[in-house]
Amino acid sequence: MPLHPDRLLPADPATRAIARELYRAVADLPIVSPHGHTDPRWWGENPAFANPAELFVIPDHYVLRMLVSQGIAYEALGIGEGAQADPRTIWRTFAANYHLFQGTPSRLWIDHSLEAVFGLEQRLSPSNADAYYDAIAEKLAQPEYRPRALYDRFRIEVIATTDSALDDLRYHQMAKDSGWTGRVLPTYRPDAVIDPETDGFEDNLDRLGEITGCDTGTWQGYLDAHRSRRAFFKSMGATATDHGHPTPQTANLGAEDASRLFDRVRRGKASAEDAERFRAQMLTEMARMSVEDGLVMQLHPGSFRSHSPHVLKHYGRDRGFDIPVPVSFTVALKPLLDVVGMDPRMRLILFTLDEATYARELAPLAGAYPALRLGPPWWFQDSFEGIRRFRERATETAGFMNTVGFNDDTRALCSIPARHDVSRRTDAAFLADLVTSHRLDEAEAHELAPRLAGDLARDGYRLNAPA
Amino acid sequence: MPLHPDRLLPADPATRAIARELYRAVADLPIVSPHGHTDPRWWGENPAFANPAELFVIPDHYVLRMLVSQGIAYEALGIGEGAQADPRTIWRTFAANYHLFQGTPSRLWIDHSLEAVFGLEQRLSPSNADAYYDAIAEKLAQPEYRPRALYDRFRIEVIATTDSALDDLRYHQMAKDSGWTGRVLPTYRPDAVIDPETDGFEDNLDRLGEITGCDTGTWQGYLDAHRSRRAFFKSMGATATDHGHPTPQTANLGAEDASRLFDRVRRGKASAEDAERFRAQMLTEMARMSVEDGLVMQLHPGSFRSHSPHVLKHYGRDRGFDIPVPVSFTVALKPLLDVVGMDPRMRLILFTLDEATYARELAPLAGAYPALRLGPPWWFQDSFEGIRRFRERATETAGFMNTVGFNDDTRALCSIPARHDVSRRTDAAFLADLVTSHRLDEAEAHELAPRLAGDLARDGYRLNAPA
Amino acid sequence: MPLHPDRLLPADPATRAIARELYRAVADLPIVSPHGHTDPRWWGENPAFANPAELFVIPDHYVLRMLVSQGIAYEALGIGEGAQADPRTIWRTFAANYHLFQGTPSRLWIDHSLEAVFGLEQRLSPSNADAYYDAIAEKLAQPEYRPRALYDRFRIEVIATTDSALDDLRYHQMAKDSGWTGRVLPTYRPDAVIDPETDGFEDNLDRLGEITGCDTGTWQGYLDAHRSRRAFFKSMGATATDHGHPTPQTANLGAEDASRLFDRVRRGKASAEDAERFRAQMLTEMARMSVEDGLVMQLHPGSFRSHSPHVLKHYGRDRGFDIPVPVSFTVALKPLLDVVGMDPRMRLILFTLDEATYARELAPLAGAYPALRLGPPWWFQDSFEGIRRFRERATETAGFMNTVGFNDDTRALCSIPARHDVSRRTDAAFLADLVTSHRLDEAEAHELAPRLAGDLARDGYRLNAPA
């Protein structure tokens, strides 16, 4: 029985009772998932998942990295040349090492998924690994376990994917055309046509020109191409853009300087400094376009992607080797904020992996600039302790209304209800603490709980706007 | 009934009982307020406050920034060209948005002020906004609500203001001459004649020369002018100086280098690097003078003042747009500490907005150098969670005796008892946790509570010295 | 009665009951102490400790710095020219100021030592200072209070010292030769022959050449000399090396660049930049040798040693004036990790004094790279709050298995059982919280507690390998 009904609620009995009521009131609310990485093909083609290993192990970089950190080879997890091809063997390796996840959110998510999605109530272990494999595999073959059925079963109200600027969004179109009523929104993620240090950057810009009919050989044509793609994404339902830059540096160059910088970048002549300046300038350009077209802007800075060249070369990207670096926003964001920070039409949602910024910079910034909102804990911090630290450090300065609820930021479909459940429980626990310490009335906590569970995300991402 | 008698005390019943006793023992102790920003005119002229909006909304940058961050214009809050002129309308806007302060210290302070100062026991809301406005306005017209009466009612024992080096301290003199028995001390804050990047810096130095009769055209004359002003401030009761530098950088240049640097600065030829070096050098000069004249030195570094040029231009300074930056003390303070760090006559109180420095640098520094003490959480952190984090991170390395109790650091008169109350409750909760976990005897906690509530401030700021 | 049986356990009664059981199960387990600074002479010669002041006050930099920070002169503590020579007078000074340690781990350690080692159950105070002095002094004269007897009484299973690369390990040899069964391991700490900024660096390299017969005038000879010393240390039982660099910077220069850099360093021509690059390169060289010889590598970066030149000059090193600086590992460790990070033979244990790195960098790195493990909280953080913060911030991302249990890192012999006791209690409290919040089953917590108390240290430091 891994899933206790009181999990993550406060230890003190009186506080726990308050938290239980708060949680009960939001436990079954629909899921609003405005930022994530589910595969659009799932929604367009609604395929069956292949097997338990491909559902739980291979695509989850949290799972991979923990196993690898303890000496298990990627090959044993089905990745790389000569990798293990038998999914059952991979699953057994996973089960044999499931104890490694003690104390981690992965364990909470997987326990929750096994029980809530597949009805498997004992903790995964070597002794039940085969039986669980069979049970899951059998269910994956049933229509009730295809993506769209899970969407309904998870009570997802809306879910956003994250899509390359060059993507034709065919699966989004397919989902629409199919008559399915699920709401799946693309998100404009133009990193590959903005970051000059991306592999194939120049080809990407050629491609961007072909797709849009704009002359991406010139600065103005390049900006027009972005406008064109943003309009297309918006027509397909997008309400937001997302930017995964190494730093939050922004710039606001004069038109001529920007144009000259673009020329160097376009001709592959960009120095590392040029590349950083170009990314910086483009954040401000994206912000200007957001003011025009109303797309909410998201910034996810401060991750050193694919830190191990060995892992990158042999096993690829998103294998668990993206490592955070220190980040500071105050000076870095100023050029952008000087342009759009006070503009009521602008909305920029800030994320961080450097928790030192919560109380020091992010809460003070979002607690002042009308354009800013704080995204929930991202990635390594979308966990009980992580969400707790976020609330404790951000709330006193930014309040609740400058935050945008929770988003699951995941490519692991079955973990979505589990993650939102962790978020709702952690917020219920936090609110209950405020009530017990008489910082908040119980009635206020009951007003806030559903806001944190959904309304703030709907509002923050402008999801209520007519489609 | 917003003010529960157990607010901010621990959830665990046994711990709460201990905390309640600790709090009870200090709740009514006099307020020692050695650092703050009340208006000296209040103490000199003892005027009536104009209206509720001017008391609670317009001067409080915490209140302003939260309202602005949610899209309310400064103009609607009575600030800027063409601003709303009717204080009742401003008050209504405030009341209509009072929910934005849920979970923030502003809410605790304002709830406390409304109840404890004005006897208004329901939470502020649109429905009682007008009645509250009338009730407060009526009281503000009474002599019992003038500043000096509030000083007595709040049981303030001593309060320090923060004053420009160029200030003639006329209101302090007026307060003395009036025969009023309140103790209001000026604090020497020479930023405007030390920071070459201040607007009007050269004029300020001319003015400093005129006031002191020293030749502020030379390095030695300039230093003498500081000595003269410090002596004047001291004669008016000052026990401390305060320095609001962008960084904690210090320097200890040779006499010739310092003199040459001053010459560049004096002639308006200072580069940004010169300006930083000059501020750095002046911290060490101020420290040397502190050794001579015994004034306690305070350093408040790490705030990017007036981050938004738009807000600065249209609405002025201190409107909620001062944003922290990362700070490191260890290397930056070394030049100064090499000079005065081991000197028993020196006292330097360090403040920070970057909580990462508490355990990493500030507690180790203050737990070693006899010259150093730790100021309480400053600004965004003078809150329940903020004080808690300070105690948890600083105490194990610096102990209690290297801290200087609480100071309210506010320009909001009515929030002073509320802030000290939050501090006393939070410290009672922290001490009670130490008792419950048997890290401290209950008798020791009862000895410590009044020290944290007043004695450490009296000692830290040398307030017990004969006036 | 300073030592309450429930000290450091959670306040909530149900959680405390769980923690109590967890603690009871590990309280009496043997002590594994794989990193520390006890004096090898104690183990070789087994001398009596001279007096209470030399046992508790003079060698403990935590005790010294706190007393000094409050204005007590080193001289009064028996250190420096013309220092107090009477140990009883020093002890009285300590006792008179024992309240300064309220809320600090020093207080917990000393209370514990006095009671558990000397049977003194009242808290130290001026009134019992003389009686305590006599009682301790009397016991120190008894054979039961000599180091080896204390080793047995403390149930130490193995203890590592930290030794210069130039040390002949004579006391380790003496301990072996004596037939004593205690297990005392040296640790290879080559800072003095790696850091070009060490006083006497060139002489040290000459000496290294003499000892090893290698030509330390050449890069290859110098590396061979390290190999030789490492082999010697290993033959004497060492399982680990330790590196106390100012920063975690690593480098991976080509052979020629490295050789040229060595030449500059060897001839005393190294710039500050060269020195940093040389230290950086040597971390990678040490890592390569660890892959060859299997010695576990430890890195302790980020301390500004002997911050006060006055203290260094008059009172020496390790007097409480080592102050942390900000640290970042992600970029700094990359050159080393590119070489050995994925190698299953490599083990690098990372320590930090900058807690901002726990969740941001260390847990993500150790939760991915098989070569990495996280050392316990170091120095200022080996305390209740410090260990707690470490577990809360590291566990969710790195799990438990990427940590290496506790080590006491101390030169204070009597504090060793006290420190391990604090660690075991704090971990019991943390595990109990996980159980109460249903993040862990109680049975799992009971499996984990002894791992945290010993197994992870045995495994992490490869202490189970045949001697």
UniProtKB/TrEMBL annotation, chains A, B, C:
Catalysed reactions listed for this entry: aldehydo-D-galacturonate = keto-D-tagaturonate; D-glucuronate = D-fructuronate
UniProt GO molecular function: glucuronate isomerase activity
SUPFAM superfamilies referenced in this protein's UniProt entry, alphabetically: Metallo-dependent hydrolases (SSF51556)
EC assignment: 5.3.1.12
Keyword Cell division: no
Domain of life: Bacteria
Enzyme class: isomerase
Keywords: Isomerase
Transmembrane segments: none
Pfam families, per the entry: UxaC
Pathway: Carbohydrate metabolism; pentose and glucuronate interconversion
Family named by the database record: Belongs to the metallo-dependent hydrolases superfamily. Uronate isomerase family.
Protein known as: Uronate isomerase
Organism of origin: Tianweitania aestuarii
